């Protein structure tokens, strides 16, 4: 097979989704599957929907269009604050969007009126992560403006955690979000259909025994895709961690002296090291680099160490004497590595345990991104 490539086990992806969905169902919480890390790949989205996700969430309009062109008809919510330049397209392909700015909401309302439809609005509240969000004391006032605006409907409120500032969700913060939902309803006189408590970082709280209050939705991407807690990096019980595997090919294997043969420039990257020449340690180069993925986010095979990487070379030291030119090394990825690898134009995506249906075709890049094996 060609490399570099990502091997995706759709059976394990469906299992991860189904496991999270079933555990959340017992807590009265629906799962909205987030596909932004996989660039809205249709086959991966279908596996999440097959696993029971109530809908999809995306951050980029191009990914939403890719899903729609592939025949995905489920509700899709845009979870990054919309750009004013894209409001007409957003209303056309997304049922709802997460918002913080009244000028943007007004533009969405105008676009919805032009298209003779109503666009749902979820207001994001700032709960400590210091990324996007309306200050809690202003949420009722903003909510009232949305309720009074033709063309849009106030669907709910949401919050975000552990993305920019690493602030973890807690039971206290979930109680505060519940109180804000009640406050908005009291002030605006409109029932909130959705109270979205956050993302994969919320799962330890959601798996617990405390009351969930008004929280009835979580936006889950990383936990389903990688089976891990984004805060601790630990595996979540019952989930697979090897749903995605990055495979790279060895293009050089050699030993090199501990000191460079030629002088190095003063600005040479400090990360680069040289592996001493021994019979036990071999220095190998892979056809993979920073242009393809976050190399620091790759698992290092036993007996190997990361030496460094450039734009298109990944250098490791290994004690595996069986590796030779043409051999392949398999890596597990963290979220950053997965996200960059899925977007890399030269990495092929091979799907395993899937169904070849029109819905699963990659209509944008059929030869580059989709191979069923």
In CATH terms, what is the architecture of the largest domain?
Alpha-Beta Barrel
What is the C-level CATH assignment of the largest domain? Alpha Beta
Q: Spell out the helices and strands N to C.
A: EHEHEHEHEHEHEHEHEHEEEEEHEHE
Give the % helix: 25-40%
What is the fold named in CATH at topology level of the largest domain? TIM Barrel
Q: What percentage of amino acids are in beta strands?
A: 15-25%
Radius of gyration: 23 Å
**If you average the pLDDT, what whole number results?**
91
Number of domains: 2
pLDDT < 50 runs, ≥5 residues? 268-277, 356-373
Number of helices: 11
Short description:
By secondary structure, the chain is of the alpha/beta class. Helices cover 28% and strands 22% of the residues.
Can you describe this structure?
By secondary structure, the protein is of the alpha/beta class. It has two domains: 217 residues, Alpha-Beta Barrel (TIM Barrel); 120 residues, Lyase, Ornithine Decarboxylase, Chain A, domain 1. Helices cover 28% and strands 22% of the residues. It has eleven helices and 16 strands. The strands form two sheets. Strands 1, 10, 11, 12, 13, 14, 15 and 16 form an eight-stranded mixed beta sheet that branches. Strands 8-7-6-5-4-3-2-9 form an eight-stranded parallel beta sheet. Helix 1 packs across helix 2, helix 4 crosses helix 5 and helix 6 packs across helix 7. The radius of gyration is 23 Å and the shape is elongated. The chain starts with a strand and ends with a strand. The C terminus is likely disordered.
Topology summary:
Layout: E1 5-9, H1 10-25, E2 30-34, H2 42-50, E3 55-58, H3 61-69, E4 76-78, H4 87-93, E5 96-99, H5 102-114, E6 119-125, H6 139-147, E7 152-159, H7 171-188, E8 194-196, H8 203-206, E9 217-220, H9 222-226, E10 244-254, E11 282-286, E12 304-309, E13 314-318, E14 328-331, H10 335-343, E15 348-352, H11 366-369, E16 371-372
Helix pairs in contact: 1-2, 4-5, 6-7
């Amino acid at each position: 097979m060609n490399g570099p490539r990502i091997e995706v086990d759709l059976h394990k992806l469906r299992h991860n989704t189904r496991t999270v969905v079933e555990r959340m169902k017992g807590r009265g919480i629906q799962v909205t599957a987030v596909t932004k890390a996989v660039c809205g790949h249709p086959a991966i989205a279908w596996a999440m929907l097959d696993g029971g996700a109530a809908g999809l969430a995306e951050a980029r309009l191009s990914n939403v269009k890719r899903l729609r062109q592939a025949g995905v008809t489920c509700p899709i919510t845009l979870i990054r604050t919309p750009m004013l330049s894209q409001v007409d397209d957003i209303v056309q392909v997304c049922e709802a969007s997460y918002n913080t700015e009244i000028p943007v909401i007004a533009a969405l309302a105008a676009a919805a009126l032009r298209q003779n439809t109503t666009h749902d609005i979820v207001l994001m509240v700032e709960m400590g992560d210091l990324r996007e969000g309306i200050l809690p004391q202003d949420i009722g006032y903003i909510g009232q403006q949305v309720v009074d605006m033709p063309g849009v409907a106030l669907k709910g409120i949401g919050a975000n955690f552990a993305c920019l500032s690493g602030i973890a969700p807690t039971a206290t913060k979930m109680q505060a979000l519940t109180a804000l939902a009640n406050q908005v309803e009291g002030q605006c006189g409109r029932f909130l259909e959705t109270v979205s408590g956050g993302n994969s970082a919320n799962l330890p709280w959601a798996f617990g025994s405390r009351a969930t209050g008004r929280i009835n939705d979580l936006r889950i991407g990383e936990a389903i895709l990688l089976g891990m807690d984004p805060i601790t990096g630990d595996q979540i019980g019952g989930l697979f961690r090897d749903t995605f595997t990055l495979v790279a090919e060895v293009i050089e294997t050699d030993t090199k002296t501990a000191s460079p043969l030629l002088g190095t420039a003063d600005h040479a990257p400090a990360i680069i090291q040289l592996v001493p020449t021994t019979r036990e340690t071999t220095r190998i180069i892979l056809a993979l680099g920073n242009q393809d993925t976050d190399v620091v986010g790759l698992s290092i095979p036993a007996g190997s160490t990361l030496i460094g990487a450039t734009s298109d070379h990944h250098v490791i030291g290994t004690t595996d004497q069986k590796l030779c030119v043409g051999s392949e090394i398999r890596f597990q990825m963290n979220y950053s590595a997965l996200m960059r690898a899925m977007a890399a134009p030269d990495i092929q995506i091979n799907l395993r345990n899937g169904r070849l249906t029109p819905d699963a075709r990659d209509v944008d890049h059929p030869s580059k991104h989709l191979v069923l094996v």
